[in-house]
Amino acid sequence: MKITLKPVGDVADEIMNELRGRVNGIFNCPVEIRESFNDLAYAYNPERKQYLSSKLIASLKTLAREGNEKVIGITDVDLYVPRLNFVFGEADTISGTAIVSLCRLRQEYYGLALDENLFLERATKEIVHELGHTFGLGHCSNVKCVMHFSNSLADTDYKKENFCPKCCLKIAPLL
Ligand SMILES: [Zn+2]
Ligand SMILES: [Zn+2]
Question: What is the mean pLDDT of the chain?
């Protein structure tokens, strides 16, 4: 098994490298960074000023990949799906593909002072959560588990960046 992180649009190298290290610390398998695509215009909704996450996942699915590879796109743009104001991320379990937006994970987005470590912790949790879905895990009732559903950033901040013992038992044989 291996995990590939793909910047979708512009994402700073330092952020990608930092996230690679953190994700590698959770999953006991190789984690690589690979280029993807930069032109996101086709997924942009000018009325909402957001990008349709399922369209970006569909593009990630078309990129060459290996059989036992989970792919997660990481983007700075704000994502949505119809009927929701926004999403932190989305996963497609069947193809083993997911995407996460960094946009709303930054304190600056809410007019607060920059907090780089908090931002990286949130991003790690969202990435590990969506990757958990690509491994077939559903949402977990344990509020401290990374697979707990985050309705808001408060939920994300409350949970940990790793799997609870129950989820660990499910994921360990798949790595
Ligand atoms: Zn989820
Ligand atoms: Zn759990």
Answer: 96
